[in-house]
Amino acid sequence: MSEQVREVVVIGSGPAGLTAAIYTARANLRPLVIEGEPSSTSDQPGGQLMLTTDVENFPGFVDGIMGPDLMGRFRAQAERFGAELVTTRATRVDLSQRPFRVWVRNQATGGEDEVRAGAVIVSTGARALMLDLESEQRLLGHGVSTCATCDGFFFRGHHIAVVGGGDSALEEATFLTKFAETVTVIHRRKELRASKIMQDRAFKNPKITFLWNSVVADVLGDGKLEGVQVRNLVTDELSTLPVTGLFVAIGHVPNTDLFAGQLDRDEAGYLITTEGSKTNIAGVFACGDVQDHVYRQAITAAGSGCMAAIDAERWLEAQGEAPSDLNETITDW
Amino acid sequence: MGDAVVTLTEQTFDDEIGTVGEPLLVDFWADWCGPCKMIEPILDEIAREHPGRLRIGKVDIDQHLELARRFDVQSIPTLILFRAGAPELRIVGAKGKGQLLEELQAFL
């Protein structure tokens, strides 16, 4: 990374960030995309879709497409138009003045490199909520998993549990029936909030059973998962469900810690955007799940990434900072 | 120049981890595991950058599930560092190069 100021820096590389990269690259804004570090959670290059298998609802793919394949295509397209992607994470930001500063981890030295930006597009997405139990943390990799598609294989013939009631939980539960003997879905309400089609599939699957009005009170096992302690919220009774695999899919929380005290967030931690992708700081735009707790789909994230790119490009132009070979009229996308 | 990361099999495993000398980091992986593929080039780099101080080997759990079971691997990627035949460090889940180097520091 050089001393120069990048016109646009995109933080995050899920569908929102990569769409913003494609559009800003095509506008000759030479975007730098801080795509994240490898990880087994959604906090990795490509974002949440890297942990899924079939994506059936992204328009344009009649027979569906694997999440990682879809993100591979987004990435290739961004590179095709000249976006520069760096496989590292942002460690801190200073948005108090321009040029904005974003520090990234230097993978070789472990230190920080400073990047300066004319405009910043935040697309850091959201991560899966965990149960926040010490026992869960301790047994990660020993029966407790954050990635059904990575680890389902190890639970062939096991009795396992999935916690949650939305599309993620049912998708994981259905996927896991390919390996597990039984899958118990533990949900704190008496109704699922997943889409109807996912619910139908789960109800018809003979390997899936449901524990309603229930939450996980504790995760049991010494070195290896042996079961979960379940509390029934209606009767307040505790019971033990003997499972040797546990997958948690109870929702997501936006990755906004980096911006605390600088960008306005709502009570749930989501970045607040107005008039499209504008944040409270002029020149800083946000898109994707980091600012959306209503829709949270790959296609809405991609759409908002495009909006952020256009907002950023118009804003830079208004500052007199658009690239010199831009036409006099606003770029015709 | 061959692969810096050695492929280990059920037949060669015990000989490799028992070999006296630098520690051996074993990467349990599979072809269908995205995060496993993401760290593959990183492990290759680390192996090339630390000749004589660290060896890295990989076990394809699709071919050698018994080895995975033997070491209680239930999530991939899992990296286990062996010294004098004994497992001394376990890293579960993909990580960035910087973080991996940090965790391996004491053994290099």
Write structural notes for this entry.
The complex is a heterodimer of chains A (333) and B (108). In chain A, 23% of the residues lie in helices and 26% in strands. Chain A has 333 residues and is α/β, with parallel strands linked by helices. The longest helix of chain A is centred in the C-terminal third of the chain and has 21 residues, at 298-318. Chain A is elongated and about 65 Å long. The model of chain A is unreliable at 324-330 (pLDDT under 50). Chain B has 108 residues and is an alpha/beta fold. Chain B has helices at 13-18, 34-49, 65-70, 97-104, and strands at 5-7, 24-29, 55-60, 78-83, 86-92. Chain B has a 5-stranded mixed beta sheet with strand order 1-3-2-4-5. In chain B, a hairpin with a 2-residue loop joins strand 4 and strand 5 (86-92). Chain B is globular, with a radius of gyration of 13 Å.
Quick summary of this structure?
With 333 residues, chain A is of the alpha/beta class.
Q: What is the C-level CATH assignment of the largest domain in chain A?
A: Alpha Beta
Multimeric state: heterodimer
Specify the number of helices of chain B: 4
pLDDT under 50 segments of chain B (min length 5)? none
Envelope shape of chain A: elongated
Largest sheet of chain B: 5 strands, mixed
Distance between the termini of chain B: 23 Å
Q: Find the structural class of chain B using helix and strand composition.
A: alpha/beta
Report the portion of residues of chain A in β strands. 25-35%
Number of strands of chain B: 5
Binned, the helix content of chain B reads 25-40%
- Helix/strand/pairing category of chain A: alpha/beta
Strands of the largest sheet of chain B, in order across it?
A: 1-3-2-4-5
Which strand-content bin applies to the residues of chain B?
A: 25-35%
Determine Rg of chain A (CA atoms, Å): 22 Å
